[in-house]
């Protein structure tokens, strides 16, 4: 199912991976860096990912990241 999502809705797949990296007790920094580095290498549109993140989780990625980093 994850493979299909990665093919059909790449931005949604990456948004979900980002959310898993920042949610919960502490941010998984190494996972977060790997995801963002992969996005950069594959020339994926950051704006699409950020929009999908906000659509899926009702909070902006940057806002959620800031909340997680200040806790």
Please name the defining characteristics of this protein.
mainly alpha; 5 helices; 77% helix; 0% strand; 71 residues; globular
Strand/helix succession: HHHHH
Termini distance?
Answer: 33 Å
- Share in helix: over 70%
Low-confidence stretches: none
Average pLDDT confidence is 84
* DSSP strand tally: 0
Structural class: mainly alpha
Largest sheet: none
Fold and architecture overview:
This protein has 71 residues and is mainly alpha-helical. 77% of the residues lie in helices and 0% in strands. Helix 1 crosses helix 2, helix 2 packs antiparallel against helix 3 and helix 2 crosses helix 4. The longest helix is centred in the N-terminal third of the chain and has 13 residues.
Walk me through the topology.
Blueprint: H1 2-8, H2 10-22, H3 29-41, H4 46-57, H5 61-70
């Amino acid at each position: 199912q994850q493979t299909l999502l990665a093919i059909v809705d790449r931005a949604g797949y990456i948004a979900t991976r980002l959310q898993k990296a920042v949610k919960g007790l502490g941010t998984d920094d190494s996972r977060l860096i790997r995801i963002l580095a992969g996005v950069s290498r594959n020339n994926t549109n950051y704006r699409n990912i950020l929009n999908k993140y906000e659509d899926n989780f009702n909070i902006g990625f940057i806002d959620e990241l800031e909340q997680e980093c200040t806790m």
